[in-house]
Amino acid sequence: MSADMIPLLTKALGETVYMVVVSMVIATIIGMPLGVLLHTTSKGQILESLAVNRIVGAIVNAVRSIPFIILLVAIIPFTRLLVGSAIGTTAAMVPLVIAAIPFIGRQVETSLKEVPFGLVEAAQSMGATPAQIIWKVLLPESMSSIVAQLTTVIISLVGESAMAGAVGGGGLGDLAIRYGYQRFRPEIMLATVVILIVLVQLVQFVGNTLAKRLDKR
Fold this sequence. Notes:
Blueprint: H1 5-40, H2 50-64, H3 68-74, H4 76-83, H5 89-113, H6 117-125, H7 130-164, H8 171-181, H9 186-214
Helix pairs in contact: 1-5, 1-7, 1-8, 2-5, 4-5, 5-7, 6-7, 7-8, 7-9, 8-9
Transmembrane segments: 17-39, 51-76, 82-104, 146-168, 188-211
Keywords: Cell membrane, Membrane, Transmembrane, Transmembrane helix, Transport
GO cellular component, one term: plasma membrane
Protein backbone atom coordinates (compact mmCIF):
# COMPACT_ATOMS: atom_id res chain seq x y z
CA MET A 1 0.00 0.00 0.00
CA SER A 2 1.38 3.36 -1.03
CA ALA A 3 2.23 6.06 1.50
CA ASP A 4 -0.38 8.40 0.02
CA MET A 5 -3.10 6.09 1.33
CA ILE A 6 -2.14 6.62 4.99
CA PRO A 7 -3.75 10.10 5.17
CA LEU A 8 -6.86 8.74 3.45
CA LEU A 9 -7.11 5.86 5.91
CA THR A 10 -6.61 8.25 8.83
CA LYS A 11 -9.29 10.61 7.52
CA ALA A 12 -11.71 7.73 6.89
CA LEU A 13 -11.14 6.36 10.38
CA GLY A 14 -11.81 9.79 11.84
CA GLU A 15 -15.07 10.05 9.87
CA THR A 16 -16.16 6.61 11.06
CA VAL A 17 -15.42 7.43 14.70
CA TYR A 18 -17.22 10.77 14.32
CA MET A 19 -20.31 9.10 12.84
CA VAL A 20 -20.45 6.36 15.46
CA VAL A 21 -19.78 8.57 18.50
CA VAL A 22 -22.23 11.33 17.61
CA SER A 23 -24.91 8.87 16.47
CA MET A 24 -24.48 6.83 19.64
CA VAL A 25 -24.74 9.85 21.93
CA ILE A 26 -27.92 11.12 20.26
CA ALA A 27 -29.47 7.65 20.06
CA THR A 28 -28.66 6.94 23.72
CA ILE A 29 -30.24 10.20 24.87
CA ILE A 30 -33.48 9.12 23.20
CA GLY A 31 -33.17 5.33 23.48
CA MET A 32 -32.52 5.14 27.23
CA PRO A 33 -35.82 6.83 28.22
CA LEU A 34 -37.53 4.70 25.58
CA GLY A 35 -36.19 1.55 27.21
CA VAL A 36 -37.29 2.78 30.63
CA LEU A 37 -40.76 3.50 29.24
CA LEU A 38 -41.02 0.05 27.68
CA HIS A 39 -40.08 -1.61 30.95
CA THR A 40 -42.01 0.49 33.44
CA THR A 41 -45.28 0.41 31.45
CA SER A 42 -45.27 -3.37 31.05
CA LYS A 43 -47.56 -5.62 33.09
CA GLY A 44 -47.00 -5.48 36.83
CA GLN A 45 -44.46 -2.66 36.70
CA ILE A 46 -44.51 0.71 38.45
CA LEU A 47 -46.15 2.65 35.61
CA GLU A 48 -48.22 -0.19 34.15
CA SER A 49 -50.05 0.89 31.01
CA LEU A 50 -50.52 -1.93 28.56
CA ALA A 51 -51.97 0.32 25.85
CA VAL A 52 -48.92 2.61 25.89
CA ASN A 53 -46.58 -0.36 26.09
CA ARG A 54 -48.13 -2.11 23.11
CA ILE A 55 -48.21 1.00 20.93
CA VAL A 56 -44.62 1.98 21.69
CA GLY A 57 -43.49 -1.63 21.41
CA ALA A 58 -45.13 -2.00 18.00
CA ILE A 59 -43.39 1.13 16.70
CA VAL A 60 -40.04 -0.06 18.05
CA ASN A 61 -40.47 -3.49 16.48
CA ALA A 62 -41.50 -1.96 13.14
CA VAL A 63 -38.38 0.22 12.92
CA ARG A 64 -36.12 -2.60 14.06
CA SER A 65 -37.49 -4.91 11.38
CA ILE A 66 -36.33 -2.63 8.54
CA PRO A 67 -32.93 -3.69 7.16
CA PHE A 68 -30.44 -0.83 7.55
CA ILE A 69 -29.61 -0.54 3.85
CA ILE A 70 -33.33 -0.12 3.05
CA LEU A 71 -33.76 2.41 5.87
CA LEU A 72 -30.72 4.28 4.59
CA VAL A 73 -32.28 4.75 1.16
CA ALA A 74 -35.90 5.11 2.26
CA ILE A 75 -35.32 8.16 4.46
CA ILE A 76 -33.12 10.08 2.00
CA PRO A 77 -35.79 12.82 1.58
CA PHE A 78 -36.03 13.18 5.37
CA THR A 79 -32.23 13.21 5.69
CA ARG A 80 -31.96 15.90 3.03
CA LEU A 81 -34.67 17.94 4.76
CA LEU A 82 -32.97 17.60 8.14
CA VAL A 83 -29.30 18.26 7.27
CA GLY A 84 -29.53 19.70 3.76
CA SER A 85 -27.83 16.77 2.05
CA ALA A 86 -28.13 13.01 1.63
CA ILE A 87 -24.39 12.50 1.16
CA GLY A 88 -21.57 12.74 3.67
CA THR A 89 -20.84 11.77 7.25
CA THR A 90 -23.39 14.13 8.80
CA ALA A 91 -26.12 12.82 6.52
CA ALA A 92 -25.19 9.23 7.34
CA MET A 93 -25.79 9.88 11.02
CA VAL A 94 -29.52 10.39 10.48
CA PRO A 95 -30.29 6.76 9.54
CA LEU A 96 -27.69 5.56 12.05
CA VAL A 97 -29.52 7.35 14.86
CA ILE A 98 -32.94 6.16 13.70
CA ALA A 99 -31.71 2.57 13.49
CA ALA A 100 -29.99 2.70 16.89
CA ILE A 101 -32.81 4.25 18.96
CA PRO A 102 -35.18 1.23 18.98
CA PHE A 103 -32.20 -1.13 19.33
CA ILE A 104 -31.03 0.73 22.45
CA GLY A 105 -34.59 0.87 23.75
CA ARG A 106 -34.97 -2.91 23.65
CA GLN A 107 -31.51 -3.50 25.07
CA VAL A 108 -32.15 -1.17 28.00
CA GLU A 109 -35.53 -2.80 28.58
CA THR A 110 -33.83 -6.20 28.72
CA SER A 111 -31.28 -4.93 31.24
CA LEU A 112 -33.98 -3.41 33.48
CA LYS A 113 -35.85 -6.71 33.53
CA GLU A 114 -32.81 -8.28 35.22
CA VAL A 115 -33.29 -6.10 38.32
CA PRO A 116 -35.00 -8.19 41.06
CA PHE A 117 -38.52 -6.92 41.57
CA GLY A 118 -38.01 -7.30 45.30
CA LEU A 119 -35.78 -4.22 45.22
CA VAL A 120 -38.56 -2.26 43.58
CA GLU A 121 -41.10 -3.48 46.13
CA ALA A 122 -38.75 -2.53 48.95
CA ALA A 123 -38.41 0.98 47.54
CA GLN A 124 -42.18 1.26 47.16
CA SER A 125 -42.72 0.16 50.75
CA MET A 126 -40.49 3.05 51.85
CA GLY A 127 -42.63 5.52 49.90
CA ALA A 128 -40.38 6.02 46.88
CA THR A 129 -42.02 7.62 43.87
CA PRO A 130 -41.77 6.01 40.40
CA ALA A 131 -39.16 8.60 39.40
CA GLN A 132 -37.09 7.81 42.48
CA ILE A 133 -37.35 4.09 41.81
CA ILE A 134 -36.14 4.59 38.24
CA TRP A 135 -33.19 6.82 39.18
CA LYS A 136 -32.14 5.20 42.45
CA VAL A 137 -33.03 1.53 41.95
CA LEU A 138 -33.59 0.43 38.35
CA LEU A 139 -30.84 2.36 36.57
CA PRO A 140 -28.07 1.94 39.18
CA GLU A 141 -28.77 -1.79 39.61
CA SER A 142 -28.83 -2.44 35.86
CA MET A 143 -26.03 -0.08 34.77
CA SER A 144 -23.45 -2.83 34.30
CA SER A 145 -25.78 -4.73 32.01
CA ILE A 146 -26.80 -1.54 30.18
CA VAL A 147 -23.15 -0.71 29.45
CA ALA A 148 -22.61 -4.22 28.08
CA GLN A 149 -25.70 -3.86 25.90
CA LEU A 150 -24.67 -0.41 24.66
CA THR A 151 -21.29 -1.85 23.72
CA THR A 152 -23.13 -4.24 21.41
CA VAL A 153 -25.01 -1.31 19.87
CA ILE A 154 -21.77 0.61 19.26
CA ILE A 155 -20.27 -2.39 17.46
CA SER A 156 -23.43 -2.66 15.37
CA LEU A 157 -23.13 1.04 14.48
CA VAL A 158 -19.52 0.53 13.36
CA GLY A 159 -20.72 -2.06 10.85
CA GLU A 160 -23.65 0.07 9.74
CA SER A 161 -21.43 3.12 9.31
CA ALA A 162 -19.29 1.09 6.93
CA MET A 163 -22.46 0.13 5.06
CA ALA A 164 -23.43 3.79 4.83
CA GLY A 165 -20.16 4.37 2.99
CA ALA A 166 -21.56 2.39 0.08
CA VAL A 167 -23.96 5.24 -0.66
CA GLY A 168 -21.58 8.14 -0.09
CA GLY A 169 -21.67 8.27 3.69
CA GLY A 170 -17.93 8.65 4.06
CA GLY A 171 -15.74 6.76 6.49
CA LEU A 172 -13.97 3.44 6.05
CA GLY A 173 -16.79 1.89 4.05
CA ASP A 174 -16.66 4.68 1.49
CA LEU A 175 -12.87 4.35 1.24
CA ALA A 176 -13.09 0.59 0.74
CA ILE A 177 -15.65 0.98 -2.04
CA ARG A 178 -14.13 3.91 -3.93
CA TYR A 179 -10.43 3.18 -3.57
CA GLY A 180 -10.45 -0.56 -2.95
CA TYR A 181 -13.26 -2.15 -4.93
CA GLN A 182 -13.77 0.31 -7.77
CA ARG A 183 -10.03 0.78 -8.39
CA PHE A 184 -9.18 -2.90 -7.97
CA ARG A 185 -6.86 -2.36 -5.00
CA PRO A 186 -7.53 -5.27 -2.63
CA GLU A 187 -4.82 -4.12 -0.20
CA ILE A 188 -6.92 -1.05 0.61
CA MET A 189 -9.99 -3.17 1.27
CA LEU A 190 -7.88 -5.42 3.49
CA ALA A 191 -6.53 -2.41 5.39
CA THR A 192 -10.03 -1.08 6.07
CA VAL A 193 -11.18 -4.50 7.28
CA VAL A 194 -8.19 -4.76 9.64
CA ILE A 195 -8.87 -1.27 11.01
CA LEU A 196 -12.54 -2.11 11.58
CA ILE A 197 -11.59 -5.34 13.38
CA VAL A 198 -9.16 -3.47 15.65
CA LEU A 199 -11.79 -0.78 16.31
CA VAL A 200 -14.41 -3.36 17.26
CA GLN A 201 -11.97 -5.20 19.53
CA LEU A 202 -11.08 -1.94 21.26
CA VAL A 203 -14.74 -1.01 21.77
CA GLN A 204 -15.49 -4.48 23.16
CA PHE A 205 -12.54 -4.35 25.54
CA VAL A 206 -13.47 -0.91 26.89
CA GLY A 207 -17.13 -1.91 27.21
CA ASN A 208 -16.34 -5.14 29.04
CA THR A 209 -13.94 -3.38 31.41
CA LEU A 210 -16.45 -0.65 32.25
CA ALA A 211 -19.27 -3.16 32.71
CA LYS A 212 -17.15 -5.19 35.17
CA ARG A 213 -16.35 -2.08 37.20
CA LEU A 214 -20.02 -1.17 37.43
CA ASP A 215 -21.10 -4.69 38.39
CA LYS A 216 -22.23 -4.61 42.03
CA ARG A 217 -22.34 -8.38 42.41
